[in-house]
Write a structure and sequence with these properties.
mainly alpha; two-stranded antiparallel ribbon; globular
Amino acid sequence: MEETSVAGEESRGIRFTLEEIAGSVGDFGTIFPIMLGVAIVCPDVNISHFFLFLAAWFIIAGLYYRLPVPIEPMKAIGAVAIAGGISGGEIVASGLIIGVLFLALGLTRSMTWIGDRIPKSVIRGVQAGLALMLLKTSIGYIIPDPVFAAISIAIILIFFVASQRTRIPDVSALLVLFIGLGVGIATQGMPPFRLIPLPTLILPVSTDFVAGIWDLALPQIPLTLANAILATSLLTFDLFPKKGVDPDRLSGTIGLMNLISTPLGGFPMCHGAGGLAAMYRFGARTGGAGIVAGILILIFAIVFAPPEVLTLIPLGVFGALLVFVALELGKHSAKTESYLVTATVAILTLVINLTVAFIVGMILAYARKYWKEKQGSGPASPS
């Protein structure tokens, strides 16, 4: 309790200490694999614009919240894109749909009411299903390049163990990316230097909105409600009791960042409880960590301006990174109150799609609740 109180006092200002710098990279292991993976399978997107807007919103969030509130790519949209490939127009359409929805929910202060009506077991199933999709995709990268995959996995495991036992930040994602780039430059030569191209307005067509709603937005919405907003808000009050962030404020910034960024080439973004926990664990206590993270990501935006950079990185590196993103996402799915619902959603996600799995999961969870009440067990919230 005393440590939490101290953290709350420290969070009043913005600091740039070594601890803040270490904490700033705490969430990079999830961010980079998703962003890079999408850029590889979706040739009509610009990876430098992904990083540019992510950097900008990290800095804005640091200044606005004055806490280490992370900015993350939306995992459901990223997983679907990596697994099957989608167009840039569909990404923009999903970002606009989600942006309008969460800005409206934040302004009307409706977040908690809606979040309470989505069964947790369904959300856990979506997490497990996304993990399975990412694992399936990662195999496609690992098989043709097993050597770099093995090296990358070993590095990630070493850092994971070290970060669990010490305060060394897990920068394994950055390290394996740098190694991959180094090998690519040594074998293929240095790519030409180019400035980041200016973002241009992307206008989705009607078919983009159909796919954006069905394939991307619907699977993403429950995850954003549960993890990016409700769980993140709860954790801010746990860690910073005097400056905790209510769900509606988080919903508002998610809405704004997507409405502003995605039409200009940014990837759909949200906050995240896991990212906040990771940044805090490695020393982040103020918005300074977010500002530093934004500056570091901006450097990546400049480095990745030439599209040729993506071809330099061995496929095994991406495969290894996706394995650990999948494990990080999937480990939370075990915290369910109904393995039947969670497993059903996960399997349907893998064999059909996320939206069908979510709808079936909702029906099954509420049917389970009804059955339990009918059997005389008393009122029970769907799980």
